[in-house]
């Protein structure tokens, strides 16, 4: 689980906000397949703290008392306020009470448990002991020193972050533009190249991973346009093979 409290501080950051939004969106879209659960919490629900791509794809939503329709719908979903699901109806005394959407067929009014620090410490200690007894605790939490590994080039993961799952065969130059926007400090020089050079640059960068490129045709304004591209599925396969080889080595 990846939990980010006060996520508005991350997503509204001048330097890292856009990249964080793109990466979190990628996790949300593929979280179940990746085995990652993303938990986002904010006291300031607006377009900066909850980018549209994130608020549109989150599956389970919980909203405590808010003051207006916009905040209500940003958390619970479009038209929820109009359909009578209104977290604005809660009062100051309704502590821990909110609307839960996505956990059942219909929205529910639920109440969270109040845990002070001593209770939280006791729960964590009990959970840790249970994992020790079950033999499922590993790494630093178990007092082990993790093995240092060579830094992994994030290119493949970055490509998955900027190419949605429903885009099976993206063009190289378009992907480079997205990469430059995602990580300008790393891919910015690529983004300044001519389209043909962008395509060649990405083709060269993908070769060490066994990912090949070729002509990808699309219909634009009634005409067939061919440009260099690749198959997104090959990126997924390359990541799996790279990680498998690294673990075996």
Automatic annotation (TrEMBL):
Organism for this UniProt entry: Streptomyces spinoverrucosus
Transmembrane segments annotated in the record for this chain: none
Taxonomic superkingdom: Bacteria
Protein name: FtsK domain-containing protein
Classification via InterPro entries: FtsK/SpoIIIE/SftA (IPR050206), P-loop_NTPase (IPR027417)
């Amino acid at each position: 689980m990846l939990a980010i409290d006060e996520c508005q501080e991350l997503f509204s950051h001048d330097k890292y906000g856009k990249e964080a939004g793109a990466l979190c969106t990628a996790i949300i879209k593929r979280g179940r397949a990746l085995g990652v659960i993303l938990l986002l919490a904010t006291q300031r629900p607006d377009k900066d703290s909850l980018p549209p791509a994130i608020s549109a794809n989150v599956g389970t939503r919980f909203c405590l008392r808010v003051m207006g329709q916009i905040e209500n719908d940003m958390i619970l979903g479009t038209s929820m306020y109009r359909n009578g699901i209104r977290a604005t109806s809660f009062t100051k005394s309704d502590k821990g009470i909110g609307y839960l959407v996505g956990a059942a067929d219909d929205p529910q009014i639920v109440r969270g448990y109040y845990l002070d620090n001593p209770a939280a410490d006791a729960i964590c200690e009990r959970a840790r002991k249970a994992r020790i007894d079950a033999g499922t605790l590993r790494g630093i939490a178990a007092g082990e020193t993790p093995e240092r590994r060579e830094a992994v080039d994030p290119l493949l993961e970055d490509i998955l972050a900027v190419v949605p799952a429903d885009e099976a065969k993206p063009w190289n130059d378009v992907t480079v533009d997205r990469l430059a926007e995602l990580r300008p400090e790393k891919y910015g020089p690529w983004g300044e190249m001519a389209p043909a050079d962008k395509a060649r640059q990405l083709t060269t960068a993908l070769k060490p991973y066994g990912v090949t490129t070729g002509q990808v045709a699309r219909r634009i304004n009634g005409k067939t346009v061919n440009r260099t591209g690749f198959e997104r599925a090959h990126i997924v396969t390359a990541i799996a093979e790279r990680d498998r080889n690294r673990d075996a080595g």
